Amino acid sequence: MAAAQAGFDLIIDTVPVKHDLNPYLPLLDINGTLVIVGQVGPLAEPHTAHLILGRRSIAGSLIGGIAQTQELLDFCARKNIHPDCEMIRMDQIHEAFERMEKADVRYRFVIDMASLQA
């Protein structure tokens, strides 16, 4: 985290539960923005010094429409930005859940729906 301080113009926070934003605010560069898209409801209180001294901001956004989603996908393609995820088959769902309970997940699980037996 120390090596990444002031290294980001934008952080997209997708955490869906109450959590502390304070560790992430110093990662924003001057005029950087942390955008909350996952949590609807209360959050831990941010330290305003992180915001004021770095001219940083916190914003919120709901999911965009098709045009905004396409714009995001095009941007990611231009910048060679890819998600970090681990693809699993449907029959691995119990193992994946056990790994989540053990904090043995480096990124995000994505279930290959083609592996679902109808």
List the helices and strands and how they pair.
Elements: E1 8-13, E2 28-36, H1 48-53, E3 57-60, H2 66-79, E4 85-89, H3 93-101, E5 108-112
Parallel strand pairs: 1-2, 2-3, 4-5
Describe the 3D structure.
With 118 residues, the protein is α/β, with parallel strands linked by helices. It has two domains: 2-81, NAD(P)-binding Rossmann-like Domain (Rossmann fold); 83-118, no CATH class. The chain contains three helices and five strands; from the N terminus they run ββαβαβαβ. The protein has helices at 48-53, 66-79, 93-101; strands at 8-13, 28-36, 57-60, 85-89, 108-112. The strands form two sheets. A three-stranded parallel sheet has the order 1-2-3, with no helix packed on it. β2 (28-36), α1 (48-53) and β3 (57-60) form a beta-alpha-beta unit. The model has no long low-confidence stretch (mean pLDDT 90).
In DSSP terms, counting alpha (H) and pi (I) runs of 4 or more, how many helices? 3
- Give the proportion of residues in helices: 10-25%
- Provide the residue-averaged pLDDT: 90
Which class best fits the helix and strand makeup? alpha/beta
The CATH class of the largest domain turns out to be Alpha Beta
CATH superfamily of the largest domain: NAD(P)-binding Rossmann-like Domain
Percent in strands: 15-25%
The sequence of SSEs as H and E is EEHEHEHE
Over the alpha carbons, how many angstroms does the gyration radius reach? 17 Å
Strand order, biggest sheet? Answer: 1-2-3
Extract low-pLDDT stretches: none
Shape: globular
Largest sheet: 3 strands, parallel
Distance between the termini: 45 Å
- The domain tally reads 2
